[in-house]
Amino acid sequence: MLDYGILRLIWWALIGILLIGFAVLDGFDLGVAMLHPFVARSDTERRVTMNAIGPVWEGNQIWFVLAGGAVFAAWPVLYSVSFSGFYLAMMLVLIGFILRPVALTYRSKRPSSAWRGFWDWAFFVAGLIPSLVFGVAFGNLLRGAPFHFVGGLNVVYQGDLLGLLNPFALLCGLVSVAMLVMQGGSFLAVKTEGAVATRARRLGAAAAILTALLFALAGVLVAKLIEGYVFQGAPDWEGPSNPTLKTVTREAGAWLANYGRAPLTLLLPILGLLGAAGAAVALFKGYARTALGFSCVAIAGVILTAGVSLFPFLMPSSSYPDHSLTVWDASSSRSTLFLMLLVVVVFLPIVLAYTAWAYRVFRGIVTEAAIERGDDYHY
Predict the structure, then answer these.
(1) For residue 90, what is the domain's CATH number?
(2) For the whole prediction, is pTM greater than 0.85?
(3) Average pLDDT per block of 10 residues along the chain, 379 residues long
(4) DSSP state of 245
């Protein structure tokens, strides 16, 4: 069996991989939803954008389910604190996820323009809310959340929903929104043609530029204004899963410390910036598939930058820094991590293979002519 510390590191990396998979795949679904009222003008064009994600959006959501399940199994204390503290924010995400299939299913049930217009905007909201909330959540992780433990590790959360909507977290929310609009615009540029593709390229390119600018601004604020958290002493890789047995202090610029210790990690924010810039250039020049590739690189760079900046912290506590959750003290037992790793080794390749097969089967462009002919499109 692998060492406990190595297993903890593996699961930290796996959570990152699952989050990137979710942001890349379901990210373009959310981006398409946010672009839907703006890139599609006529009823047929709006059916085109919906059917561009129609065959795959349900499968893409599996990455969010996998990430949530992995956190529950591998980091139960993190799951408990995050779902207790961010409960109302999670409910907003859930509402968005519920609203999306309802909007997709009911939009074309009646010919009324008012009916369809209402569901078009509901589809937009279903993309905007989760995209914004995910970014706000990451922003609050960097600032720290007001929680501590009492008794037998019973969590006490002292914040509220309005407290999560602080300026820095909202900036991170805007980074997330712009990033996923970039992804959605790149995807639509690949999957559609004509006016829809042209508008998607234009708006996607603007979102890519905005992603780079907002990401850079967030980085400056993290370096200059946002206090980071510092683990005092040498971490015990094999230590017990009890987040109250350490000393943590807050220091300005502490979130940049890992880049000094491992200079190669500086490539991650560079990838985020260059990926967004590359997507913008490719969209302007009409290279849709290249743009989608650059957009995926940008997403991976942004998420990995946040993860490496936080490491070894999973969720810092702003009210009781010593109770912050880290990779070394918030995990499940060694045997649980090992058994779950075996499950991942068996089933993750199956998920990847099925995903690749589904995208191969449903490859090709969604055209207005096919929609008007009444070809086999769901929405």
Answers:
(1) 1.20.1630
(2) yes
(3) 89 94 93 96 92 89 87 90 85 92 91 92 96 94 91 83 89 97 96 94 97 96 91 82 89 91 94 97 95 97 96 92 92 92 91 90 87 75
(4) S
